[in-house]
Amino acid sequence: MVLPLAAYQSCFVDPPGLLVLFTIMTSLNQENQFEKVLIANRGEIACRVITTCQRLGIKTVAVYSAADAESLFVHMADEAIFIGSPPSAHSYLNVDAILDAVKTTGAEAVHPGYGFLSESYIFAKKVTDLGVVFVGPDPEAIRLMGNKVESKIIAAKVGVNCIPGSDKEVRDPAEALEVAEVLGYPVIVKALAGGGGKGMRIARDDAELFEALRLSREEARASFGDDRILLERYLVASRHIEVQVLCDKHGNALHLHERDCSIQRRNQKVVEEAPSSLFTSSANLRSRICDQAIALARAVGYDSTGTVEFLFDDRSQDFYFLEMNTRLQVEHPVTECITGVDIVHQMLRVAKGHRLLYRQEDISTRGWAMECRVCAEDPQKAFGLPSVGQLTSYREPSHIRGVRCDSGVVEGSEISVFYDALICKLVAYGGNRKAVLSIMTKALDSFIIRGVTTNIPLLRDIISETGFVSGEFATDHLARIYPEGFRGAQLHETEVYQLIALASVINVKNVLRNQANVSEVVNAPFRLVVSVVDGTIVVKAQVIQKDDFFEVRLEPLSSKKSLVRVIRVMNNFNLADGIVEQNFNEQETRIFQLRERNHVGDVCLQYRGSIFWLRIRSEKAAALESAFIAAHKRENKPTMPISALRAPLPGLITSISVDAGQVVEAGQELCILEAMKMRNCLNATHCGIVKAVNVRQGQTVAEGEVILELE
Questions:
Q1: Per the CB 3.0–4.6 Å rule, which of 48, 216, 226, 419 could disulfide with 193?
Q2: CA–CA separation, 460 and 440 (whole Å)
Q3: Contact status, residue 518 vs residue 505, Cβ threshold 8 Å
Q4: Paired strand residues for 108
């Protein structure tokens, strides 16, 4: 018995209904299924696979490194096998250790997740040679599509549009120069194997090309165990569109429509959505791109879940084949939300040999879905240099209608320097794109994460930016709207005064709570001096408590004109609340997070993802403090040499390019710092002599640690 998808799509509107639909189908059909599946991965995707397996009654085996011994996925699995030390090469890329775990546990199948060995022909072949099922395509399809050069040749043969580029591996800088001369700059240097933005760099001239070749090889080797490289023309103003395909071992193939993954930084996706606004008024374009994806899948005898990626060039108004990912994609939840298909379940079904449950005409879409990748990153450093540490507080906004959270962490989890920075895939689903943007805004504002810096400020800014809201964006969108880099939320003056008003009320509520005789002071006005810590605005605040709200009168100290603002703050929250919702003077509701209060009256609020400290003093205390500072003002003494090269983020020193006493030029490479599988080249900012090298190759450094000194 096969029920229509429409009967189940409603399951994907609310989080409690997610991922249950094909569990129901399986019980109706009483299909044979695996008894035990080993997941050769970690983190969020391991949890995702385990969740579906649990719903199907399939036992699971986790493999883990020393760094992941207490991770959520290890505790979720029925069994867990230790496979090595934290570096990926010693654990999640250690084929022999994983195969030993398969033999030890008697797993019938191996699900590779994404990244690591998920697109390794050698790994898939060794799994199948053991007589174990690889939950993915046939190894030969992985080999054909895993080589980006060979995949382009096959694609061209079946009429798929392809991006101009090298038709073979680029082996050395001289060969790369020849290809770049033919293509013209900019070019993109790409690893032949793998994906996820690893081993991928844009070069705009010869110097950048040489550096990109070296760093891309190193990243590819560390991430996938394969350092082969190719070059392609870089399409500047393009949309990144991918098509989800699903095929079985009986020759059936269909697509689950497209996703738009154009919002990227460092060639890594940040925000994804389905469907794409690009095709809103062009059903013909959607049909063409989906048909080409299916043609390619059939050409290689594809028999699992996969994704065919394209770039839509705004100048030529045509699309070009980028690559095929022979695995589950990070962003698969947005497709699940609009189609009602549990893609992980379908991978397991077809791997077991079952036919697809439906035909192409049975697949329809409903609504809109968007995914924001919430990562442990500082977005004000190159759009997101990694942040590591313990999640001291963690609360997902999964209570919000239309929100889905796919994560692999809990409060107390450690974000390690060894692996990807992803914390949670935050997904919003609604009837249309406008509704989804509203849901996502509330979800990001309500997501509580403490202990590490996150990219929520950037995500929050992106989804409210005019071009993104209107659907007018491309892969270079972030570089265009933040030409000087992301600098945090830029607030309107009204928003700043609302922050000040709320902080003033928080201070007053704290005083009232601690006051011995509240009745004597409750109606008296509180007179405060409040400043945003960056010093941009200093105001006098008068706070008066009314029946169910506080009236806050604000007057700037720096203004020559007596401009008084009166703001109403509802008394609808407790100081222990992490989330505060306010509709000042009955305007639209704004969401704040009360992050911290200290003993001297400072208040830390989070708004639109960004953090704001506000200094609050009584009028008398402010006057005394000002007099004290004026009397004891002194120059700040630098605690570190101006020429000290400090680590911009925690990581591993993989190479040091200079020695003490060596003369260096501005821009010269000093060392390579690896963090979360990304290589970062640290260069000299000025000419000088290396006074001291304070670290050694292979050493782990903390953020801000002095690596070397120049004089």
A1: 226
A2: 8
A3: no
A4: none
* Structure confidence by residue, pLDDT tens digits, 470-498: 999 999 999 999 999 999 999 999 999 99
pLDDT, position 501: 96
35 is known as an active-site residue: no
Spatial contact of 108 and 32, defined as CB atoms under 8 Å apart: no
The DSSP code sequence of 643-660 is: TEEE-SSSEEEEEE---T
Contacting residues for 593 by C-beta, under 8 A, at least 6 apart:
445, 448, 578, 579, 580, 605, 606, 607
User: Cα dist. 338→367, 387, 429, 436 in Å?
Assistant: 6, 33, 8, 12
Instruction: Give the other-Cβ count within 10 Å of 591's Cβ.
Output: 18
Find out whether 53 and 371 touch, Cβ atoms under 8 Å: no
For residues 52 and 333, the answer to whether their CB atoms sit within 8 Å is no
List, for the chain, all residue ranges whose pLDDT scores fall below the cut of 70.
Answer: 1-30, 194-197, 516-523, 534-536, 558-562, 625-642, 676-677
Residue 340: in which H helix or E strand, if any? Answer: none
Cα separation of the two ends of the chain: 77
User: In the 8-state DSSP scheme, what is residue 486?
Assistant: -
User: Considering 44, 232, 273, 323, which one is annotated as catalytic?
Assistant: 323
Upper half-sphere CA count for residue 421 (Cβ side, 13 Å): 29
pLDDT of 560: 62
Backbone dihedral region of 192: left (phi > 0), alpha (psi from -120 to 50 degrees) or beta? alpha
Q: How far apart are CA 476 and CA 81, in angstroms?
A: 42
Residue 637 is given by DSSP the state P
All domains in the chain, ordered by first residue: 31-135 (3.40.50.20), 143-163+235-480 (3.30.470.20), 164-234 (3.30.1490.20), 493-631 (3.30.700.30), 644-710 (2.40.50.100)
Residues 619, 622, 625: CA angle, nearest 5 degrees: 150
Closest CA to 35 of 63, 56, 64: 56
Query: Tokens 């309107």 label which residue?
Result: 492
DSSP E strand boundaries for 408-454: 414-415, 422-430, 448-450
CA distances 291 to 161, 163, 314, Å, are 12, 18, 20
Confidence (pLDDT) at 272:
98
Chain centroid to Cα 346, Å, comes to: 25
The distance of Cα 63 from the centroid of its chain, to the nearest Å, equals 23
Q: pLDDT per residue over 661-675, tens digit each?
A: 898 888 788 988 887
| Assigned token pair, 667 | 């821009």
d(Cα 168, Cα 436) in Å, to the nearest integer? 43
Which pLDDT score is estimated for 37? 99
Helix (H) or strand (E) holding 292: helix 283-299
678 neighbors 266 (Cβ within 8 angstroms): yes
Burial class (CB in 10 A: 0-12, 13-18, 19+), 102: buried
Q: Which two tokens stand for residue 306?
A: 């996969």
pLDDT tens profile 301-320: 999 999 999 999 888 888 99
Q: What is the pLDDT of residue 483?
A: 92
Are 38 and 63 in contact by the 8 Å Cβ rule? The answer is: yes
As to burial, measured by CB atoms within 10 angstroms (0-12 exposed, 13-18 middle, 19+ buried), residue 568 is: middle
